[in-house]
Write a structure and sequence with these properties.
Structural class: alpha/beta
Order of helices and strands: EHEEHEHEEHEHEHEHEHHEHEHHHH
Distance between the termini: 87 Å
Helix content: 25-40%
CATH topology of one domain: Rossmann fold
Largest sheet: 4 strands, parallel
Number of strands: 12
Bound molecules: iron/sulfur cluster
Length: about 350
Amino acid sequence: MNRNIKFLHLDGAWMNHAFLRLSAYHRHMERDNIFFGDVIEKNFLEPNYDIVYVSLIFFDEKNPEFQKNREDHIRRQYPESKVIFGGCGSTNPKGTIEELIGFDSYFASYDYSMYENTKYDTGFSYGYLSKGCRNKCSFCVVPNIEGKIVSVAKVPQLFRGSQSLHNKKRYAKKLVIMDNDFFGNPDWKERCEEIIKGKYMVSFNGGINIRKIEDEQVHYLTLIKSHDDSFKSQRMYVAFDNPKDEKLFRRGAELFAKHGLAGEKNGEKVLVYMLINYWNKDIEEAKNRYEVIKEYGFVPYPMLYDDEHASEEFKNFRRWAIRRETRRTCTFDEYKQHGSKAPAMKKMLANQTSLFD
Ligand code: SF4
């Protein structure tokens, strides 16, 4: 008998990738009925479910009981069902889809139909071509959860357009590639060729590891052209988090420059995340790193660690740096003095001076 399977999407603004795979399994392999919801409380008109999958991404570090309490509350809504929690905000962050269904489900592709006509569906295709990462950043859960990098899918498998089950619409070939370390994939070149031959537009949403990038890989980046995750503009995401990585960052940035992906013309297409208030509590260090990034024409984007306990100076630095107008019109010192009024004040002072010229 076909079972009733509910997917409860509680955290995150995007379609849940694990749900897409689990739904493909239940729909295609088990012929189950698929239901979708995004509020905890069960509506009295809903049927009973055999299984309820719940995705939990966020957690409250300061409240160790938070995850357990939230899960207990959800279980009480579905006393008749087997409730399965997953995601790094659950008490089972290492649980895998393979454990749940008993085999590697990647071949089964993705089933987007539950998200159709919901606010989560952008019309794009999402997924991983590889899992894992070559790096072991101390603040990141990926090395622990996913481990060594492995190739898991080919590019055409990510594209939802190939799924004709419920889609009457035609979807553009826009792929959000969520790999943590796209070029760490041993099959990166084949994946690049597939993107180019298939004429896919891509967004390397998981970022490009600039510290380990090679010349040939940058060449491929010039052929592929990465976009932001709403496909409105060309954009590449990289990171320069650890001040100790300056040499490695510069090596990668020089390769970008060699291939025309830096400088005045194209540098603005590269957004560089920089973690601040983590290794070093010295604002001068953050300012230096900011300047190194600017040297290549890239856009620095500070990410503030532990913002609750961060100093006002770090908070101001972040505010100043992430607003294009602010960082372009006034220095950080001016911003510190006058806050968000600094650009207007500077303009006003410039006008006053010209009156007396
Ligand atoms: S490079 Fe990114 S995914 Fe890899 S360990 Fe560091 S933060 Fe995590």
